# Entry
Amino acid sequence: MVIETKSPEETFQLGEELGRKAVPGQVFTLTGDLGVGKTVFTQGLAKGLGIEEPVNSPTFTIVQVYEEGRLPFYHFDVYRIGDVEEMEEVGFDDYVMGEGVSLIEWADLIEEILPEKRTEIRIEKDLEQGFDYRKITVEKLE
Ligand code: ADP
Ligand code: MG
# Structure
């Protein structure tokens, strides 16, 4: 599925819709350059899960846990990861195999430890289409 958005609000809404439909144990992986809209999408997804508190990229921790929504939400940002072993240390496997919803920004950096069953979200710019244009590809892998 390919969705084209023309504003941050539209990307947020796509995230919100997927958050509303998310099921226990679902894993979302996000890829795309810095500033492309991964966190905007994530904020929408959190809203769709019923999380009201502000969601930002976890800068000093790899994972941020939100318990107040319809399902637990585990938000990973692995941009600063040095080695995939750091993921084991934070209990990555337990999160992704748990009953909550996991989302990983910069998932391509930890490709080798991603679960096969996941919903891949790829966000791309195309400056010829305008500064706020984003092409978002959603692909369910089994
Ligand atoms: P990332 O997490 O990928 O580094 P952010 O979500 O933090 O990126 O930032 C995305 C930036 O791009 C925000 O400043 C947002 O307002 C802007 N933006 C412009 N157009 C869009 C769009 N269509 N979708 C998402 N973000 C957009
Ligand atoms: Mg981000």
User: Anything to note?
Assistant: The two ends are 15 Å apart (CA to CA).
